[in-house]
Amino acid sequence: MELSVLNIKGEDTGKKVTVSEEIFGIEPNEHAVYLDVKLYLANQRQGTHKAKERAEINHSTRKIKRQKGTGGARAGSIKSPVFVGGGRIFGPRPRNYTFKINKKVKDLARRSVLSAKAKDNAISLIEAFTFDAPKTKSYLNVLSALSLTNTKTLLILPEVDANVYLSSRNIPKAKVTTADTINTYDLAHADRLLISESALSKLETLLTK
């Protein structure tokens, strides 16, 4: 598969790059994508939720009424979950939601999403660029030239570029990452992938190990 290289003005540079079929031309594995996205979302959870149960409520344990003769159910303590202010039955406790999936499954998930995006013509190769200073307007001009102003985009760079990252940070539908930190969720969430020409070889190296 060949992709044309565009510059930041949205113009075709005339260069074409052949991309790896092992990454951009496989049959997507939806279950691998599901597992990796589920893992990513699970890792975003703090797991600090907590509700007090009966033993943790700070109330008296005095028997609040006699056992028999009231016509109602027996009640031994105001901490009972059936009373307002009582403990919660089987309330949430702090826990860790993370789980493990194999690295090969993660790589398969990333390759699956990249292949699906390539099949949908949702990938653009961009000539390497940078900014002299972090300016949101500079990044907006790039998106405007590519007709992607209102599109969810993910720009993949070969390494961290502070000026490009800071320029994109205030744009709601734009995100910038590097080839070695991409994740399946961000790849799938974006409507358009912008891959820096210099990041392509690094991406292929990482995903074909």
UniProtKB/TrEMBL annotation:
One Pfam entry name? Ribosomal_L4
Q: What Gene Ontology terms describe where this protein resides (cellular component)?
A: ribonucleoprotein complex; ribosome
> What keywords sit in the KW lines?
Ribonucleoprotein, Ribosomal protein, RNA-binding, rRNA-binding
Q: Does the keyword Mitochondrion apply?
A: no
Start and end residues of each stretch annotated as Disordered: 50-75
Gene Ontology terms for molecular function? rRNA binding; structural constituent of ribosome
InterPro entries annotated for this entry?
Ribosomal_uL4 (IPR002136), Ribosomal_uL4-like (IPR013005), Ribosomal_uL4_dom_sf (IPR023574)
A GO biological process of this protein is: translation
Q: Which superkingdom is the protein from? A: Bacteria
What is the role of the protein in this entry?
One of the primary rRNA binding proteins, this protein initially binds near the 5'-end of the 23S rRNA. It is important during the early stages of 50S assembly. It makes multiple contacts with different domains of the 23S rRNA in the assembled 50S subunit and ribosome.
Q: Which NCBIfam families match?
A: rplD_bact (TIGR03953)
Assembly and binders: Part of the 50S ribosomal subunit.
As for family, the record states: Belongs to the universal ribosomal protein uL4 family.
PANTHER family tied to this protein: 50S RIBOSOMAL PROTEIN L4 (PTHR10746), LARGE RIBOSOMAL SUBUNIT PROTEIN UL4M (PTHR10746:SF6)
Q: What is this protein called?
A: Large ribosomal subunit protein uL4
> What organism does the record attribute this protein to?
Rhabdobacter roseus
The taxonomy runs: Bacteria, Pseudomonadati, Bacteroidota, Cytophagia, Cytophagales
